[in-house]
């Protein structure tokens, strides 16, 4: 595996369409996929009420994993970041993030973030500021490229 440069880390984050977020809920790890928008030194996403938000309320520390994988070659780049999550309280900032999410996903997913009918749950906008971030890519030396998670 090779270390990613800060520029390569930024490329993975800006190019990825989804990530995985790990939270601790009731003392147990809980990992889910998220659609997100990059924000400076972090990301933002929307979430309905449920176990993920319960975990964030109990402990705002999170881990984010974002992987870019190429089917043709088997090469991959992966970014892992730790940070702190907070519900966005400012209505203007919340509206700005929602608009950025809609723009980011409107072509690839027909804007699934739009109106999907009545809901019993409120969607919250969550902002994560990264405390630490690392990136790795598949090997390029005399070894074959490896899939994510394989040694």
Describe the model.
The chain is of the alpha+beta class and 151 residues long. The protein is 25% helix and 40% strand. It contains 3 helices and 8 strands; from the N terminus they run E-H-E-E-E-E-H-E-E-H-E. It has helices spanning 6-15, 51-58, 91-109, and strands spanning 2-3, 19-25, 28-34, 37-39, 42-47, 61-69, 76-87, 124-137. Strand 4 and strand 5 (42-47) form a beta hairpin. The longest helix is centred in the middle third of the chain and has 19 residues, at 91-109. The termini are close together.
Q: What descriptors fit this protein?
A:
eight-stranded antiparallel sheet; globular; Pnp Oxidase, Chain A; single chain; 151 residues; alpha+beta
Please report the distance between the alpha carbons of the first and last residues: 9 Å
What's the helical proportion of residues?
Answer: 10-25%
CATH fold-level assignment = Pnp Oxidase, Chain A
Could you spell the SSE succession in H and E letters? Answer: EHEEEEHEEHE
The portion of residues forming beta strands comes to 35-45%
Could you give the count of β-strands? 8
Q: Radius of gyration over alpha carbons?
A: 16 Å
List the domain count as a whole number: 1
What is the arithmetic mean of pLDDT? 87
What is the CATH top level name? Mainly Beta
CATH superfamily: Electron Transport, Fmn-binding Protein, Chain A
The major pleated sheet works out as: 8 strands, antiparallel
Assembly state: single chain
Tertiary shape: globular
Class per helix and strand makeup = alpha+beta
């Amino acid at each position: 595996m090779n270390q990613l440069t800060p520029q390569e880390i930024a490329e993975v984050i800006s190019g990825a369409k989804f990530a995985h977020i790990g939270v601790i809920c009731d003392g147990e790890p809980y990992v889910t996929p998220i659609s997100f928008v990059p924000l400076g030194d972090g990301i933002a996403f929307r979430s309905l009420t449920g176990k993920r938000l319960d975990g964030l309320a109990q402990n705002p520390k999170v881990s984010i994993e974002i992987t870019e994988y190429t089917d043709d070659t088997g090469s991959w780049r992966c970014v892992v970041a730790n940070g702190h999550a907070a519900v966005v309280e400012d209505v203007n900032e919340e509206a700005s993030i929602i608009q950025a999410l809609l723009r980011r996903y409107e072509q690839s997913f027909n804007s699934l973030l739009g109106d999907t009918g009545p809901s019993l749950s409120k969607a919250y906008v969550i902002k994560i500021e990264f405390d630490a971030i690392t990136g790795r890519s598949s090997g390029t030396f005399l070894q074959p490229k490896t899939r994510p998670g394989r040694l």
